[in-house]
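Minutes, methods subgroup
Present: GH (chair), OT, SY

1. OT presented the first of two proteins processed in the latest run. Sequence and structure tokens recorded below as shown on screen.
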Amino acid sequence: MHTFFNGWRRKAGVVTLVMAVAMCSLWMRANLITDEITFQIADRRHTVISLRDGVIWISLDGHLRQTWMWESSAIGSAHLVNSMAMDITDVLTLIGNIEGLNPNGWVISHRNLVIPFTLLSAYLILWKPRKKPLNA
């Protein structure tokens, strides 16, 4: 058993499995709670919002009063629209009407994060390593 984790492949597989479990727990949490994390990198303000239908990333020019903020609210009291029906491009166009913000953003479904991490971890953990040639 101690030789099972020799090499980089299985170690990377465990790391991607942990990432898949973290994304899956975020997906389950998003059914009850909306999370919003805002942080600053250089002169851009980044906001990541976890909703029931997926994750939204919005980036704007501007400064924060704090280096980062985390806000959580129950689904019933959420101040955000809790459906992807409101297209992110409409939101960015609305924000872009305010001069100088230079908005950018994307939306991704939770399943589009969880499934690839799970499949990659299964490949990395379960794939048998190649046998080294005896001549080498």
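2. SY then presented the second protein from the same run.
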Amino acid sequence: MNSPGTSRFGRRTFLLAAGGAALPLAAACNPFGSSTRATTTVTADAPPPVDALPNLIATTRFHLVRIDAAIAADKTAAKQLTDIRSDRAEHLKALEDELTRTSGVTSPAAPSDAVQRVEVPQDPVDIMALVRSDAANDQLLFNDALLTCTPFRAALYATISACLASHRAVTA
């Protein structure tokens, strides 16, 4: 029998019940309803890679204009620069053919002669440094383009990149 001052539950039962109720609260769980926090997973498709070909065509055109200006400014290196120019013109033709082949779109026409005039240094050493720098920059562009292109384009870009490496060596 219970005495008038005691409860029906013992101390051990009371502590077990209190601990059992406190445990879900401490774990931030609500055993009596749904959680107020909802986890939403959002998946997004990556955008398609940007085609580097139009940029490579534009850069090659610009470097051809700079080589033309360098030939006009440095007559002593004209033969060497003319050989480099003919290589770069072949690269431009191959790039334009690839653009036409893959997209059916011809590349935009080259700007008029009035727009194509650029200034180059007058010192022959600086002119060769400029041509070498252009070859180095283009080589990096073609190497970067190798990461997101088709196998056919990879072969084209690698060939042009190797030729640019030889231009860098020749102008050093």
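Chair's summary of item 2: The longest helix spans residues 78-103.
Next meeting: continue with the remaining queue.
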